[in-house]
From TrEMBL:
Annotated ranges, domain Nitroreductase: 13-192
Lineage: Bacteria, Bacillati, Actinomycetota, Actinomycetes, Mycobacteriales
Source organism per UniProt: Mycobacteroides immunogenum
Family, per entry: Belongs to the nitroreductase family.
Xref: InterPro entries: Nitroreductase, Nitroreductase-like
CDD domains xrefs: Nitro_FMN_reductase
Keywords of the record: Oxidoreductase
UniProt keyword Repressor, yes or no: no
GO molecular function (one): oxidoreductase activity
UniProt-listed Gene3D superfamilies: NADH Oxidase (3.40.109.10)
Entry annotated with the keyword Oxidoreductase: yes
Name of the protein: Nitroreductase
């Protein structure tokens, strides 16, 4: 596939055919994804390839609590897990919320699950002293995560970037033997999608790009 076609058609695949992902294809996906940029070329990522069904079931169980809160907040009209607007949903309501099977099943039905970690000793979190949630450290790992998904798409496979298990990171650390020096950044179920989407819905460029200032004129494509 052409690069722009891959970029415009890489969707969040959650339903898989059960077809295996051959080792040589996974090799190509990871071998190409590794060229993602990172601050100072420190390459802080570590990927755990999880095939064992019991381990994957444990990852699904670790995903459930975070997902339960997510859907409880949506039901309450909140922006889930948002640090600017803390939740008002009670613990009892969260506990009583069902998690859709579509959230957990990809971890069970994907051909492989990749757990992506980042070495905290190698990140440059330039926003660590600001009075807001940190986001900059993601630059050390999420280009690698996205390269994996782009590479999977180019090979005719797909996946989705999940982070719900991170809410239970100590449990995930124990499960996979992850040291305290590393954080869990993403859990990626990868497999052959049941459907291959070719058209995605996204905001137009003029809806989120402005000129010169945040409140500047919209950047209108074709008028540069």
């Amino acid at each position: 596939m052409e690069l722009y076609d891959v970029m415009r058609t890489t969707f969040a695949a959650r339903e898989f055919t059960g077809e295996p992902l051959p080792d040589n294809v996974l090799d190509r996906i990871l071998d190409n994804a590794r060229f993602a940029p990172s601050g100072g070329n420190r390459q802080a990522g570590h990927i755990i390839v999880v095939n064992d069904p019991n381990m994957r079931e444990s990852l699904a169980k670790a995903t459930a609590p975070g997902a339960r809160r997510y859907f409880a907040q949506i039901k309450a009209g909140e922006s889930p897990w948002n640090p600017v607007s803390p939740t008002t949903v009670s613990a009892a309501s969260i506990a009583a919320t069902a998690v859709p099977e579509s959230v957990l099943s990809p971890l069970r039905t994907a051909s492989v699950v990749l757990v992506v970690c980042v070495d905290l000793r190698l990140i440059a979190a330039t926003d660590q002293d600001l009075h807001r949630v940190g986001v900059i450290s993601g630059a050390s790992i999420y280009p690698l995560v996205w390269n994996i998904l782009l590479s999977a798409r180019a090979e005719g496979y797909g996946g989705t970037l999940t982070t719900m298990a991170v809410a239970q990171e100590p449990q995930v650390r124990d499960l996979l033997g992850i040291p305290d020096t590393h954080a869990v950044a993403a859990v990626l179920p990868i497999g052959k999608p049941v459907k291959q989407l070719t058209k995605l819905r996204r905001n137009g460029v003029d809806e989120f790009v402005t000129r010169e200032r945040f409140d500047g004129a919209p950047y209108l494509t074709g008028n540069s």
